[in-house]
Each structure stands twice: as C-alpha cells, then as structure tokens.
Amino acid sequence: MHLARFNPVRFAHLPTPLEPLPRLTEALSGSPGGGPMLWIKRDDCTGLAGGGNKTRKLEYLLGDALANDADTLVTQGAVQSNHVRQTAAAAARFGLACEVILEHRTGSDAHDYNRSGNVLLDELLGAKLRTVPAGTDMNQALAELAAEVAERGGTPYVIPGGGSNIIGALGYVECAMELVMQANELGLEIDRIVTATGSAGTHAGLVAGLAMMGADIPVLGIGVRAPKDVQEANVFRLAQDTADLMGYRERVTREMVVADCDYVGEGYGLVDQGVIDALALAARTDAILLDPVYTGKAMKGLIALSRKGAFDGETVVFLHTGGAQGLFGYQTVLEGRL
Description:
The protein is 42% helix and 16% strand. It contains 12 helices and 10 strands. The strands form 2 sheets. A 6-stranded mixed beta sheet has the order 1-2-10-7-8-9. A 4-stranded parallel beta sheet has the order 5-4-3-6, sandwiched between helices. The termini are far apart. The relative contact order is 0.17.
C-alpha cells in the first residue's frame, strides 16, 4: 500500500511503542483459562499537544488541507474532545486558524468539565470556540461555520468529528502496517486488537489496513456511544470506503467489523464506577493513564471480558488512543471515587 501518494505531512512521533503490560496481565489472570497476555500500542504518545489517535489522522487531513490552500480548519466535538485539542494544535503547528463547535453532549455544568482539561488547552492553542446544545445537527452546524469563514474571505477546510472520514482513516491504515511490522520484529503473534470505537475512523482504518495486508488479526471495538448495530454499520461503511480509496474494497467483509457496546453505561462521556475502577487499575498496575470517555470505557470492557474468560490464552493488544488530558475536566466526578 503506497500511502505517500496521499501526501501526508509529518509531525507525529512515530512509530509509537508496542509494550507488554505485565502487571495488568497478572491482575487479570484469575479466570479459569488464565486470562489474556496483554500488550499496549501507545498511540497516546504521538506527540502533538499531548498526543492521541487523532494525530495520525491529522497528518493526512492536514496534507489535504494544505494541498487545497486552506487557511482555517473547521471542526467539531464534545466539550472535552481530544480531537478538537489535537486539531487546534495541528492548526497552530502550520500557522492556520481554527474554528470549533463544541457540543454540550453530556449536559454537565461542572466548572472543571466546561473550563479545564481539553477546553483549557483548546484556548491555549488559539482555537476559536463556540458551544451548542446537545442534539444539534453538527454536520449542518459545521457547514454553516465553514460558510461564515468563507464569507469573511477565509478558505475553510472542514474536518468531521473525530477526523473520521476516508482521508483521516488512512492514518490507521498506516498504524495497522506499523503494528504488524513491530509484531514481526518482536516475534509477537497477536490474536486480537481491542480499542475504543466512537466516531469510527480508528476502528475502520485498522480493519481496512489489516484486511488489505491479509494480516488476519481481528479487531474488537468497545463502543463509547452508539448501539451495536449502528456502530458496526458506521465502521463497516467507512472501512469499505477507505479500502476502496486504495483499490481493495472487496477485501473488507462485514464479518471483520465487531463492536461490543455493552460498556457505554448511561451515555457518551458519562462516567460510572466501572470506568473509574478501570482508570485506577491501569494506572496502579502498569502506570497507564487513560481517559474517562474513550480509553477508560474500552479498558472497562477489556477487564470485564477478560474476567469472563473471553480472551483466555490470547495475546491481546490494547490500542491506547490517548486522552488523559481530559482527566482534568473530570476532577469533580473522580474525587472521592478513586
């Protein structure tokens, strides 16, 4: 797969480490089958203003934006969006303006949620923020904001929530290639990859990349928002479209897309004790900092499934998509519950 033809710009710290999780593996070894052997792909270490999975996507999206002479990045996300932080950082890195719509998706009026964490970093990085109520048609809002930028004489480049379109998903086609190469160098046979699945780009890019390589490694997405049928349909569509861009659409089959959406809890960005326990266990075993919205829920699912024996005897790679900066927006929620 010749990804250079898509002209990505390079600013991520790659390759990210692939490391064992010995103490978490031991902590989850209590099932009758002994549990999984856990490794972690550290995409929290991609380097852009704290890193995270969106940085890989933004290498391709920024390449496209610059090729189209854009001077303003326009995007959207929830109040504590990791994607927005990384997009604001990418704009600053390349001297572009950044206009952002933040959706009050959780309904929280806590000061730390609305002013600290990623929001503080968005403003520090120079993004211009506006907020809208939960349930707003974000695609329409993005189109209207882009039109405003154009009316002022700017050249907007619209990035969907999560950077999750076929251009952004190429970042995770590349990650799949990188991960397989690292595993080969280590002599590591991966039985499964587990990651959070939300806006679908990371999950879809991995599925497409692995399918195009014929790597035969299943990916399990732990859902953070949508019901299973909706999430799987979104991932499958984007995975096929991404593979189609490379000329390999037929290699992505419906059976390759699996999401477990039983660990969402009460809704997107809403934290329950299971998430808090997962945050604490990851931190207190292998010193891994997760976030409350994505990786914390994915780890909650990984822990629960491991304890049920779902991964007994497997070598499982947890793809860490970053987001620990968002912890500071959840101080009120976490205090007294850790």
